[in-house]
Write a structure and sequence with these properties.
The structure is a single chain. Helix content is about 45%, strand content about 20%. The protein is of the alpha+beta class and about 600 residues long. It folds into 5 domains: about 10-80, GIY-YIG endonuclease (3-Layer(aba) Sandwich), CATH 3.40.1440; about 95-235, no CATH class; about 245-280 and about 300-360, no CATH class; about 370-540, UvrC, RNAse H endonuclease domain (Nucleotidyltransferase, domain 5, 2-Layer Sandwich); about 545-600, Orthogonal Bundle (DNA polymerase, domain 1). Strands 12, 13, 14, 15, 16, 17, 18 and 19 form an 8-stranded mixed β-sheet that branches. It has a 5-stranded mixed β-sheet with strand order 9-8-7-10-11. A 3-stranded antiparallel β-sheet has the order 2-1-3. Strand 17 (about 485-490) and strand 18 (about 495-500) form a beta hairpin. Helix 12 runs parallel beside helix 13 (about 465-480). The longest helix has about 35 residues, at about 175-210. The relative contact order is 0.06. Residues about 230-240 and about 600-603 have low confidence and may be disordered.
């Protein structure tokens, strides 16, 4: 495709036509060509993205600024896999004011077509919920779900909030509809504008009431001012002299990063959002993309965006963001002082979030991330297949396959194989045969699936060492089945010791979560394989015991066991039931019955 030397937005697509990355360019030809040149200077994420690109498209625009605006919009719309997406997985939240005769104030998760007025969306449920609760307390509005005037009566029994002066008592007609609705409007202004703006307004109104000798109204306004000040003293927040700014703190660990955004308006911390993303390897380059995913034309823009690293094209970003916001927006990297402290606070929040995701609260995820790093895998091993051979001196030679998804056993996808291509004991040949059959199953399924043989695993583990790995590796290469392959090595006491690859071993003794996961997989696949082997061995023993009966050969013995499953069920069967089995005759059935019942069959 001939690329123009003009500004625009490019859209990378995978083989299924899905958009996996969106970027902007001052010169499309130069920028897109960089992806398909030498890969040495690219980050790991970019290399993986390029490997998955099957096609791309582009949109020409009139300027680099227009490209940035379009990029922001398209990222929000398509949520591409390889863009840094600061998404809040809890969804958006709104402030709702009903349109009833007695207005009510709520925090809700969704907008409804009910005639109410909605403010938002906001990303933090805690921030919205706390602000609404504070407003209800300060302006003495109901916390309950009662509807007025339906639930109002002079004889009603008010709740505790009325007696501790957190509610004016609309239920017992302690306030008029006009005063109640005015308080709702003030509460909305408090939530939207913050305490400082509301305090200025209330103090001005109190002074006016005092000058007009309206002391009753002045006293009410004074009490409201004191309520706001009390709530402000109880509220935990980080003070900031720079009134309107967003502070981005980043922490990285293993293959992941966490981004925490502290949003200050009028000097108050009004919202926080922390999102875990793929590891940010080049902040100067990737922060521009991060900001593009966070802001858009209708965002609540700050005056200043505080970061720990200056993004590339920072001057262009400042000019573009300012034009989008309709006011001056600056990018700021502090060296010391208050903003540096705020960066530390944001970074600490990001670190704690990342630790929760990767540690004790999510042990399986932590083990998978650590396993990915230990083995140098390009993708997280969310779907793992493990194989083990079991036999007794080459007899009843079988293989068990277990599946672990997201670090836990997926038992409905376990598979059992009987070795067909040879007789005797040879684990290497057995594993090679099983792997070839597994890959052929995958190739013969036209529509790939999320689990089972229709899915290519993220990692294959063999119970064994370098020999097992080297026996199976040629099979993968012959069929171009590009899945990482490793062995699970045991010590002399049959305990997990290391992970083997074609050229040696990787110690996992000091990687506790990886060691625990591999030991669990190894134990499970061994249990499953040997369980199948014992079942076949027992069945073979039963078949041998039946072949001593006149007229019963190995074929008839197998058919009888397939029908009755156990010797007890076979012993209890009547001659006519035995004769109904495919391939049986009346005489053979009578011989089986006589074998189990002896002389009583002659009576």
């Amino acid at each position: 495709m001939a690329l123009p030397e003009q500004p625009g937005v490019y859209l990378m697509k995978n083989a299924a036509g899905e958009i996996i990355y969106i970027g902007k360019a001052k010169v499309l030809k130069n920028r897109v060509s960089q992806y398909f040149g030498s890969q040495n200077n690219h980050t790991r994420k970019v290399r993986r993205m390029v490997q998955n690109v099957s096609d791309f498209d582009y949109v020409i625009v009139g300027s680099e600024f227009e490209a940035l605006v379009l990029e922001c919009s398209l990222i929000k719309q398509h949520m591409p896999k390889y863009n840094i997406l600061l998404r809040d997985d809890k969804g958006y939240h709104y402030i709702k004011v009903t349109n009833d005769s007695w207005k009510m104030l709520y925090d809700v998760k969704q907008k409804a077509d009910d005639g109410a007025k909605y403010y938002g969306p906001y990303t933090s449920s805690d921030a919205v919920g706390n602000a609404v609760r504070q407003a209800l307390d300060i302006f003495m509005l109901p916390h309950c779900q009662k509807q007025f005037p339906r639930d109002a009566s002079r004889h009603a029994r008010p709740c505790l909030n009325y007696y501790i002066k957190l509610c004016a008592g609309a239920c017992c007609k302690g306030v008029t509809r006009e005063d109640h609705n005015a308080s709702v409007e003030d509460a909305v202004q408090f939530v939207l504008g913050g305490k400082n703006m509301m305090l200025r307004t209330l103090r001005a109104e109190m002074n006016e009431a005092s000058e007009a000798l309206d002391y009753e109204r002045a006293a009410k306004l004074r009490d409201r001012i004191r309520a706001i000040e009390r709530v402000s003293q109880r509220q935990y927040m980080v003070a900031t002299k720079y009134k309107n700014q967003d502070v981005f703190g980043v922490a990285s660990m293993n293959t992941r990063s966490a981004v925490c955004v502290l949003r200050f308006r009028e000097g108050d911390l009004i919202d926080t959002q922390t999102t875990v993303v793929e590891r940010i390897e080049n902040p100067a380059e990737e922060y521009a993309e991060m900001l593009a995913s966070f802001y858009q034309a209708d965002s609540d823009w700050p005056d200043r965006i505080t970061l720990d690293t200056q993004p590339e094209q920072s001057l262009f970003l400042e000019q573009s963001f300012s034009e989008m916001a309709g006011k001056k927006v600056t990018l700021y990297v502090p060296k010391a002082g208050e903003s540096k402290t705020l960066l530390a606070v944001a970074g600490k929040n990001a670190s704690e979030k990342l630790a929760r995701v990767l540690s004790s609260n999510n042990k399986n995820s932590a083990a998978l991330y650590e396993l990915q790093e230990a083995l140098g895998l390009e993708r997280l091993p969310l779907y793992i297949e493990a194989y083990d051979i079991s036999n007794t001196a080459g007899q009843e030679n079988v293989c068990g396959m277990v599946v672990f998804r997201n670090g836990r056993p997926l038992k409905r996808c376990y598979k059992r194989f009987q070795i067909r291509s040879f007789e005797g004991q040879d684990d290497y040949r057995s594993l090679a045969e099983v792997m070839e059959r597994r890959i052929r199953e995958y190739r013969e399924i036209p529509e790939k699936t999320e689990e089972g043989f229709g899915r290519k695993p993220d990692l294959i583990l063999l119970d064994g060492g370098i020999g097992q790995v080297n026996a199976v590796k040629p099979i993968l290469e012959r069929y171009n089945f590009d899945v990482p392959l490793f062995g699970m090595v045991k010590d002399g006491k049959h305990r997990t010791r290391a992970i083997a690859y074609g050229g040696g071993e990787i110690s996992i003794q000091d990687k506790r979560s990886v060691f625990t996961l591999i030991a669990e997989i190894q134990e499970e696949v061994h249990r499953f394989a040997i369980g199948y082997h014992k079942t076949l061995k027992k069945k073979h023993t039963l078949i041998n015991s039946l072949t001593g009966i006149p007229g019963i050969g190995e074929k008839r013995a197998k058919l009888l066991l397939e029908r009755f499953l156990t010797l007890d069920a076979l012993r209890q069967a009547q001659p006519d039931e035995l004769a109904s089995v495919s391939g049986m005759t009346a005489q053979a059935a009578q011989n089986v019955y006589a074998f189990f019942h002896g002389d009583e069959s002659m009576s």
